[in-house]
Write a structure and sequence with these properties.
Strand content: 5-15%
Radius of gyration: 18 Å
Number of helices: 7
Structural class: alpha/beta
Number of domains: 2
CATH topology of the largest domain: Rossmann fold
Order of helices and strands: EHEHEHEHEHEHHE
Number of strands: 7
Helix content: 40-55%
């Protein structure tokens, strides 16, 4: 049977082993639930252990086999240990989703260099280290693999309110995505990024509230969003399944903007 006669088959990722960092955060929770529902085996890593346990339990309720690790990808050793944990339990790593990261905001004249460095480390260096460890394992397996970074519309666009560290770090993630897409193509490993704009999460919940302050900020933002709304967690389901599955086998080095058209205008 050809793919064209059974097009949904290209999205089938049943049995794939997925390593997700930042699994207790807003994007990581969505990713964990999507891949659990898709029949994957999950290795979930996060620094917030209480939230991590809740997410892992939710995924088990959805039928997934889950390993939960209370750890952040803070250095080379920790990244290697996350990959090793996946291999020890499930025998492989097929998909990496890097949803870990951070943001700290301050005007440039007030931002200490160590704060700038901490954002760059969490968002950029740790993404690179995870990709390095997973690439070594995927090449050892000799099978195709998928690496998915979480970038941001702020990797392309600036921001007037003290976002120099965040914008720089996400622009660097975009650069890593493109460079690794070129470097790893011959190994059958695709590397892509999802770049959201504002979407509903615990950190942005105030923007969705029915208050004058929220309405003012929301209206100003929505004036630049062609689709006329803020993002919802459900908006990441399609991009995640696409980039993790055979459907995206001919796509690498791409930054997919999940932004309602924000970066197009």
């Amino acid at each position: 049977m050809s793919i064209t006669s059974n097009p949904q088959s290209v999205f089938n990722i049943t049995g794939k082993v997925v390593l997700i960092t930042g699994a207790s955060g807003a994007f990581g929770v969505v990713a964990a639930q999507v891949f659990a529902s898709a029949g994957c085996k999950l290795v979930l890593a996060a620094g917030n252990n209480d939230q991590l346990i809740k997410v892992a339990d939710q995924c088990r309720t959805l039928g997934a086999e889950v390993v939960a690790i209370n750890a952040r990808p803070k250095n080379e050793e920790s990244c290697q240990n996350l990959v090793k944990a996946a291999v020890d339990v499930f025998g492989a790593v097929d998909i990496l989703v890097v949803a870990s990261g951070m943001n700290k905001v301050a005007p440039i004249e007030e931002m200490p260099v160590d704060v700038f460095s901490s954002v760059m480390d969490a968002n950029t260096t740790q993404s690179w280290l995870l990709a390095q460890s997973v690439t070594r394992q995927m090449k050892k397996q000799g099978t195709a693999g998928k690496i998915i970074f979480v970038s941001s519309a702020r990797g392309l666009l600036g921001h007037p309110n003290g976002y120099t560290a965040y914008c720089a770090s996400k622009a660097a993630v975009d650069g890593i995505t493109k460079a690794l897409g070129c470097e790893l193509g011959s190994s059958g490993i695709t590397v892509n990024a999802i770049a959201p704009t504002v979407f509903r999460s615990p950190l942005t919940a105030w923007m969705f509230e029915d208050t004058e302050e929220a309405k003012k900020v929301r209206d100003g933002f929505l004036s630049r969003v062609p689709l006329g709304r803020l993002g919802e967690p459900e908006d990441f389901v399609g991009p995640l399944l696409f980039l993790a599955s055979k459907a995206s086998d001919f796509y690498t080095g791409h930054v997919l903007y999940a932004d309602g058209g924000y970066t197009a205008g």
